[in-house]
Amino acid sequence: MRTLTLDKAGLASTIQDGGRLGTLHAGIAAAGAMDPLALKAGQHCLGHHAGEAAIEIAYGNVRATPSHDCALVVTGAPAMLLIDNESVPMRSIQTLSAGQTLTIGPPSEGIYSYLHVSGGFNTHPIFNSRSTSPREGIGGLHGGYLRDQDTVPLGDCAPPIDTDGADPGLCSIEQRDVLTLRYVPGYQYDELAPALIQRLNGDHFEVTSKANRMGITLNGPALKTGVESLLSEATCQGAIQIPLDGNPIVLMKDRQTMGGYPIPGAVIESDCVRLAQARPGQKIRFAACTPQEADNIKWLEHHYVETRLR
Amino acid sequence: MAFTIGPAGDTAMRLSFQEPPSPRLTRLLLQLQRTAQDYFFNALSDSVVGYATLTLFFTPLSLQRDQVAAWLEKTARSLSDSQETHAAHSKETVVLPVFYDPAVAPDLVTLADDLGMTIDTLTTLHSATPYFAYATGFAPGFCYLGTLDPRLKTPRLSTPRQRVPAGAVAIADQQTAVYPCESPGGWRIIGACPVTLFDLAATPVSRLAVGDSVRFEAIDEQTYRSLGGQL
Lengths: 310, 231
Hints:
The structure holds 2 protein chains of 2 kinds. By secondary structure, chain A is an alpha+beta fold. Chain A folds into 2 domains: about 5-155, no CATH class; about 180-310, Cyclophilin, CATH 2.40.100. Chain A has 4 helices and 20 strands. In chain A, a hairpin with a 3-residue loop joins β13 and β14 (about 215-220). The relative contact order of chain A is 0.17. The model of chain B has no long low-confidence stretch (mean pLDDT about 95). The interface of A and B includes residues 233 and 298 of A.
């Protein structure tokens, strides 16, 4: 069996693909790559189909050795890559021979990098997905974050889809003083105080270090709702949840499927990706958009991505 | 019944009834959910019933938002106006054995004290009436059961526990639940249930579903152990 051994697993590495569909009603998170564009870019380079998984790496610092020669590509947050002691570029196919060591350093910007290996990772799928949801202990190699010395089985190199192997140039890391997150108003938007909505729309917030695959806590003018809890209902990707302390949490891929805090709306998917790659300290601004605008953005992005992957 | 329909981000639409939770409302939501699943079929990626809401997940690449909104409006109106009771299928009551004992329930003694009753009274009240399953979520297989006897109404722990064991039977506000898997949690633990409620190898994976009727039955230590319970 071909395997990849993680001599160093990094801070919070997990196996991720596009995530699960249709499990929310059972209380199981969708999971999936925090940066689906970086996932797609690597799948495209190696000629993988869209269901293939990669290792999602937060803040780099991973060292890996394969049992057999393999082709690989690293996408997402740009980091220094070494094969043994030789520096190699990101986003281009590299060959790693059996026993050689790939080192992924800390990224210069962004958070999540993706290590794709030809043939994919052959862990046991749960509900048609290999994605890991560590909070639930579901998926991936053993349900949790990858650990030092974990050995991940590799797929048996199904004939790749014919691509030219070129980097499709999809990027979700934005260098901006203030990152704008477009959101669709909904849920309790109409019931919250106009002054609170004004602050949400007008003020700047900041990404805090309380950020993970479940949600990203922002700091800014406290949005005091005075509401301790509401009747539990389904949460959605990007939901801006406001707990009693007034610091909004934008819910991400491993969010709890039900929530009971006031929600004035939800950040659109494509801006969730930019937020996922934003580091603590990044300034944030919210901008309301209509559902129709959100749908148009999704169509345009879908078209753009499909064009780049052709 | 009055309701509102609105977006839940760019991935879902949400229907919310302006009505207090009740088994009748939940049955209506379940009927709406089934009808939506039949109507939209694969174009729906998921649907989730809350206490007073139904959220339909899809992408604009598969369904038009206005179409979903119009369908929800029409169907919710006709279903909620119909005089039928929404007991689509009367399910059997699921009976869950519970070992009520301080050995497995760290909050039992203090809670009985706080509520000014004996442990016996507390557990008798908890196991006296069947509960209704209003929603699943929070964690895989976690089912919100209500409504608790008002005499047992209790706030959550001010600091949630980092680790609540699988099988913990707990109460908070006027709800009760069994933690299907080990997880953090802020509800007060009053017993332990030896039955597996969530199993990825089983179909369905979750023993309980929204709309179920659930009753707890007190068991002694020997029975608890023989059913696989651990101290």
